[in-house]
Batch of 4 targets.
Target 1
Amino acid sequence: QAAVTQEPSLTVSPGGTVTFTCGSSSGGVTTGHFPYWFQQKPGQAPRTLIWDTTNKQSWTPARFSGSLLGGKAVLTLSGALPEDEADYFCLLSFGGTYMFGGGTKLTVL
Amino acid sequence: EVQLVQSGAEVKKPGESLKISCKGSGFSFTSYWIGWVRQMPGRGLEWMGIIYPGASDTRYSPSFQGQVTISADTSIDTAYLQWTTLMASDSGIYYCTFGSPRPLAWGQGTLVTVSP
């Protein structure tokens, strides 16, 4: 069974830009993996930020964007705010089943 | 507005059975997928499985196949996650999700504690 890889932690300065990546141990990530991105703050349920690689939910701030780069799914946060400090998870589809990455803890400092 | 409201926290003993629920509103319950996700204390998210209530089509993660049962009652727009024999390792927060089929919205979570 494939594993989904994410950076364990990232740090960004307020106003800075940070890139999260989501990879697959079974090969490059493509649009066919339908990458999703989720944000989870302490004590809260996750919420969906990005679906099918690039699409945003109505509540997704414009500073977040999704893409593919170098065989990985990418979540870019441009202009980080203190309120963006949270855990970020990706989800990939593998032929009808799904797998989350281990998550990335973002510190805004 | 899509809403998923889950049942309250549960405290159980190993060996007991349990069924938690997730009531959907704001969408056609039979036309979307309802999923379940586990989060163990201090850990990441684990995809457990999904159900399409309109056809009772159910899919499980290999890690959870045979360990839990996912079902739905379309007459009351409610999905369920069920255990017949709980273990301490089943402790965690369980989230239901709404999607097509991947998660677009999430319930508030149900905390399950299994302890002797």
Target 2
Amino acid sequence: DADVTQTPRNRITKTGKRIMLECSQTKGHDRMYWYRQDPGLGLQLIYYSFDVKDINKGEISDGYSVSRQAQAKFSLSLESAIPNQTALYFCATSDLGQHFSGNTIYFGEGSWLTVV
Amino acid sequence: SQKIEQNSEALNIQEGKTATLTCNYTNYSPAYLQWYRQDPGRGPVFLLLIRENEKEKRKERLKVTFDTTLKQSLFHITASQPADSATYLCALEEGGKLIFGQGTELSVKP
């Protein structure tokens, strides 16, 4: 089983619909992240959370919201999806305890979202 | 904030040759820099981390250098193989979070 699990893996939704992407991890890490990837643009950070009570905006948070339901769960919502949110979304985790030794990130397999 | 620049042009090399990828950053030198590999449609996978006080780091056929004067890291794959074909991303930490370059696609031809 994957250490970082994303659901759904693929979703097609219509403009204006609400969509939630869920992420769960079994690594016991404190930090969780949501990234978006568009072709040629690399990974852009949407939101990140250093622990259950800590939520921070990343580079491109507009149009997105998140919820950290537990240490192991971090969900990303698009309240009203629009076509330019069509992208590959990655959840990731890292260990706070490793911070000063190198904040290595572990990624999920990704969720393909298409907004039509 | 930091900006990371990687060569956006794909790198095409022959099997057996050494591939060299470049990562440049613009502002302060980070405490460490990381390299990841990403295959199409998959999540990036951590390869190597190099700290600011390390000039070079090796892991099997991989070698990373870190020049804080030039604000640059080089990533080398020696004796490259077609299985090394992938996109390689560099990343550095800013404010406790990792920011990534856009990646360089490497294609190794047999």
Target 3
Amino acid sequence: ETGVTQSPTHLIKTRGQQVTLRCSSQSGHNTVSWYQQALGQGPQFIFQYYREEENGRGNFPPRFSGLQFPNYSSELNVNALELDDSALYLCASSLRGPGPNEQFFGPGTRLTVL
Amino acid sequence: DAKTTQPTSMDCAEGRAANLPCNHSTISGNEYVYWYRQIHSQGPQYIIHGLKNNETNEMASLIITEDRKSSTLILPHATLRDTAVYYCINRGADGLTFGKGTHLIIQP
């Protein structure tokens, strides 16, 4: 069973640029969620994708967008980067179905905006 | 905003049971209580979840009060590798709402 993987591990961008982060979900999982974790804070929910559509969103502006592909992998895109976007970006996969379903997290991508 | 309240930090001696409390007085009837932990700079790791009954797995036990307004995560024999930030979460329909968690430090 392959766990959740994310790429790249680290990334440095400048203000105003755009960035794409990638996530491969755990084998058998059909749902991907993205989180932003600033230094010293808990992860904050950005959005979730299920069946290639956004299915729930946290308090993040539209310049945060995403995609989910038929193989359930996902991308997080952030446009017009701001200094405050510097954070650890976490992807989590789960299997959507009746009842509770735990989310399994990847190692994250550390984004630094200069 | 997180709907749970946890102590900022706790210490526990190695080999002892670590008991981590969590208050979730506004939890609704169909929300589960989830516990995750995050070891420095890694992704959060799922520990356990429950609805009403106490739960146990290979990592921990979860004790939920009868009124469901609070719970306790128990690590029965803490080791140095259990040093981490522990998050108590009430699970809604979509994403997990993390607070700041409890920084558990296991002392040798």
Target 4
Amino acid sequence: SAVISQKPSRDICQRGTSLTIQCQVDSQVTMMFWYRQQPGQSLTLIATANQGSEATYESGFVIDKFPISRPNLTFSTLTVSNMSPEDSSIYLCSVVTGEVSYNEQFFGPGTRLTVL
Amino acid sequence: QKEVEQNSGPLSVPEGAIASLNCTYSDRVSQSFFWYRQYSGKSPELIMSIYSNGDKEDGRFTAQLNKASQYVSLLIRDSQPSDSATYLCAVGGGKLIFGQGTELSVKP
């Protein structure tokens, strides 16, 4: 199975700043996603990262706040912009490595973000 | 609004018992159903996927799907303390929608 890494693993940031999270996979994948998991909560999909084009955002998430890039089939970034304490969460990337129809998603280790 | 519902627990079972975790979903056209295990401080780990009605067994885990009742369950046989974790049900036909998770505690 694919090895997924995320950088940074954790960070503490000041209000109003931005943080870019990287997701790197050791093999080409068909789909990549970004999720948020707030403290004590389940996972919420932020967006689908599309290779070479704009990401597809879910309701409640906008590009200005969470710009996403996916320049190739193994790498994506998520930026959390103009952060507030409400953005304190774990941010996870996930990938689909096999047939898209099976939709099996595998998660990276996550980035734990604390905004002061 | 597509929803996935799970009992939040905690569900406590003695070591060696069968743990039964349940999940219902609202979107009738869902095609893919998954169970993830998440240990505290870790990311979710895929443990079972099921796509058609009936049972699917993998070691001590059995997933059961009933599309007519919009119900999916996970049975863990011979539960071990190492099974103590939060179990997330996920449903989708492209994008995944996750339930809130059921916290399982297996007591020695």
